[in-house]
Amino acid sequence: MTSNSHTAIRASLLERIRSGEWPLGGRIPGEAELAAEYGCARTTLNRAMRSLAEDGLVVRRRKGGTRVSPAPARRATVEIPLLREQVEQTGACYGHDVRKREMLVPPPSIRQRLNLRPNQKALFLHTVHLADSVPFAFEVRWVNTKTVPQIMDEPFTDISVNEWLVRSVPFSSGDVVFAAENVDAGTSEALGVPEGSAVFSIDRTTWLGDDFITTMKLFYRPGFELRSSL
Amino acid sequence: MTSNSHTAIRASLLERIRSGEWPLGGRIPGEAELAAEYGCARTTLNRAMRSLAEDGLVVRRRKGGTRVSPAPARRATVEIPLLREQVEQTGACYGHDVRKREMLVPPPSIRQRLNLRPNQKALFLHTVHLADSVPFAFEVRWVNTKTVPQIMDEPFTDISVNEWLVRSVPFSSGDVVFAAENVDAGTSEALGVPEGSAVFSIDRTTWLGDDFITTMKLFYRPGFELRSSL
DNA sequence: TAGTGGTCTAGACCACTCA
DNA sequence: GAGTGGTCTAGACCACTAT
After folding, report:
1. Residues A24-76: tens digit of each pLDDT
2. Residues in B touching A197 (Cβ below 8 Å)
3. Could you give the strand order of the β-sheet that contains A58-61, starting from the edge strand earlier in sequence?
4. B81/A77 Cβ within 8 A
5. In this complex, is the C-beta atom of A56 within 8 Å of any C-beta atom belonging to chain B?
6. DSSP letters spanning A5-21
């Protein structure tokens, strides 16, 4: 049990919201008043209330005061761990197999995403991620070698492209798209599942500042679930 | 452009990480030192650095100091809006159709999730969510009427069960599971798609304090994508 | 225009943990 | 034991916006 003041106050405020003391959409007393009630500095109360606001539970406006959010933001935070960790968490042994690795001129859709010039080549990779030697996920990736030239010297025998990038590129922002798809022939073969099976896919593009690094699509073995909490 | 001190400092720190000034896994100067460098109070620098830590970009430990995270947490925050809003964002007109509504004794798996006694009934609902009169998502839901008795009096003609719950229950925590599935006969009929199509599903259970409220499974029309950013 | 949250400061003490 | 982040305070000024 964490028992800082701001944590405890946050919990107390949350309880008062849950109990209905402050109804949905209703106004909550001001910071000064509550700080006096809790016997703390306004700064401390502010931190607790700000935390609730960041979670979308209350809406705050200068002069307008703080209100209980009438429709709390349903925001789920999903962890996207390294595939190796994901596999090892299930107790299985991780492995990976690079099925394809070549320099190619990408199709227009990818070229645009990676912000490449026409006819400029990029590194194209197919990787099968294994859990106890059974296919766990199939990865199709394009890497912008202009941004990450060192990647050309990597054998990817010990660590996967996925992991190499995470551990080599300082910090990158990115877009993610989750979807469900019926697998095509190539993917079904790589995953060892019947064609048409429903697979969970994650399509991710990352960049560093203004420089595009990589775009990747990952198809998980049927039965895969992405868990989270609200 | 937001230009508070802590926001600006956070951005500056992030830039210094990206630039490689502080390498992956490397140690960052202490708060006191950086505060002096930026000419601000330690509190302000602390807030900026804490924000980076919350995003998983740096790892902080007392005495150990602050280090650039060697493998930044890949954490995506996904918004789970009301279905109505989700539909309206696409420019379509929202509608919903309650296909089934009855009090039933739930199967054991659901009974356990809702924490009900054996033979205790719960409200069972089938709802089809429509976008311009075309099925957009199919919802199967169980509601614990002991926790939310008022729901029995609701007609759900104007607003959907989904929305009624969001607007009536103060705040709830919950679990969410995202998956991909080949639709079964009943769902394919409700969505008007061929049996076996890959659909994106969200399975969500919510509760208020220790009281379970509802558990729901939502199947989206094929082609649905959940977008997010890192 | 006045009230409310947003931010910042300077200083203090504490808790954790590395050496 | 000592260094570093975690937290708290009391007070101040500012920015936004409801009335």
Report:
1. 999 999 999 999 999 999 999 999 999 999 999 999 999 999 999 988 777 88
2. 182, 198
3. A27-28, A65-68, A58-61
4. no
5. no
6. HHHHHHHHHHHHHHTTS
